[in-house]
Design a protein that fits this description.
369 residues; alpha/beta; Aspartate Aminotransferase, domain 1; Aspartate Aminotransferase, domain 2; 3-stranded antiparallel β-sheet; binds pyridoxal-5'-phosphate
């Protein structure tokens, strides 16, 4: 490879140039969005414009958008409510959901990686305590889309609330909060080319959402702390671009499928997770026995391609990623899984370069027997 190929969009996307310009401009203009003078009012106008773009990205009402410091914070705010006595989460949630409460009840997934709705129904029936269910829209490692409307129906029929982590889905596939029927939705700017350290919690009824960060009346009293105006402005621009580029993003499935068919041509026994399921168009998770994740990530890095073994947060661990473990994938395969996630900078040359480098690693494995 002559130049680097960034194939790790699910860890973080490159910041879009228009976002960098907008953030720089917002920083130059300054102003505290809570100040009553003209500078403050201008900053407020910029924040409210961003709120509209973020709401539009997920078909929500702008009054239900609370800007947060990350997707992690948005999940924590939704899930750590004192009003909720019982939390049911799927086994493949991001750690910001799995670890939001130490007493969360885990709902299993099928070997294919889909949440087990029968198990969810049984768990819901076990208790009358005020319950919240949290299931993600798209898994960060496999890209597999979860049956959210069906799960929401089960939760609501049982009188439970439903939170959805849509951090990986929003901006990559069409997301309609109202059609999903969820009570709240977590988002993050940096997965779609916005700044890192900005997120949003979308609430159906903001008045019932408990505060999480205390100490000020910002965000309608729902998230204290001076608004990160440049970050929020950047998020708004990223949301606008992502919404306009949804069709193009969808077309990445072709490049992804091409990459997978070339991997299979080199190694017909490779297992591609979620291949026949609805999944994000940009994500491929696959494993080949005997070719460890570590060897692939490091070998490809040396050859100029950035991919990952699992979610960035779990990098450095030598164990089957928990998402694959929850799907019953044995260690001999789980320890050999890599995630390639494409985005708007990805070209067929990137795929070609990846395959050339991957074939080298594969051939070396064969020659070492
Ligand atoms: N949820 C999912 C599914 C994610 O993939 C991530 C980030 O990797 C998060 C939540 C956390 O988002 P943030 O990085 O903004 O804290």
């Amino acid at each position: 490879m002559t130049s680097r190929s960034y194939l790790d969009f699910n860890a973080t996307a490159p910041t879009r140039p228009e976002v960098i310009d907008a953030v720089a401009e917002a920083m130059r203009e300054g102003g505290n969005a809570s100040s009553v003078h003209a500078d403050g009012r201008a900053a407020r106008t910029r924040v409210e414009k961003a709120r509209q773009h973020v709401a539009a990205l997920v078909g929500a009402d702008p009054t239900g958008v609370i800007f947060t410091g990350s997707g992690t914070e948005a999940n924590n705010q939704a899930l750590r409510s004192d009003n909720i006595e019982r939390l049911i989460v799927s086994a493949i949630e991001h750690e910001s959901v799995l670890q939001a409460r130490s007493d969360a009840v885990i709902c299993p997934v099928s070997p294919e990686g889909l949440v087990d709705l029968d198990a969810l129904m049984r768990l819901l029936a076990e208790s009358d305590a005020p319950t919240m269910v949290s299931i993600m829209l798209a898994n960060n490692e496999t890209g597999i889309l979860q049956p959210i409307p069906e799960a929401v129906r089960l939760a609501h029929d049982a009188g439970a609330l439903f939170h959805c982590d849509a951090v990986q889905a929003a901006g990559k596939i069409p997301v309609d909060t109202r059609a999903l029927g969820v009570d709240s939705l977590a988002l993050s700017a940096h997965k779609i080319g916005g700044p890192q350290g900005v997120g949003a919690l979308i609430c159906k009824t903001p008045s019932t959402m408990p505060r999480f960060v205390h100490g000020g009346g910002q965000e309608s009293g729902l998230r204290a702390g001076t608004e990160n105006v440049p970050g929020i402005v950047g998020y708004g621009v990223a949301a606008e671009s992502a919404l306009a580029g949804l069709n193009e993003f969808g077309a990445l499935a072709e490049l992804r499928d091409d990459l997978e068919s070339k991997v299979l041509a080199i190694e017909p026994t490779a297992r591609i997770f979620g291949k026949d399921l609805d999944r994000l168009p940009n994500t491929s998770k696959f494993a080949t026995k005997g070719l460890t994740s570590e060897v692939q990530v490091m070998g490809l890095d040396l050859d100029g391609a950035s991919i990952s073994a699992g979610s960035a947060c779990s990098a450095g661990r030598v164990e089957t990623p928990y998402v694959l473990a929850a799907m019953g994938v044995p260690d001999e395969l789980g320890l050999c899984a890599v995630r390639v996630s494409l985005g708007w900078t990805t070209t067929s040359q990137d795929v070609h370069g990846f395959i050339t480098a991957w074939q080298k690693l594969h051939d070396r494995k064969l020659s070492q027997g």
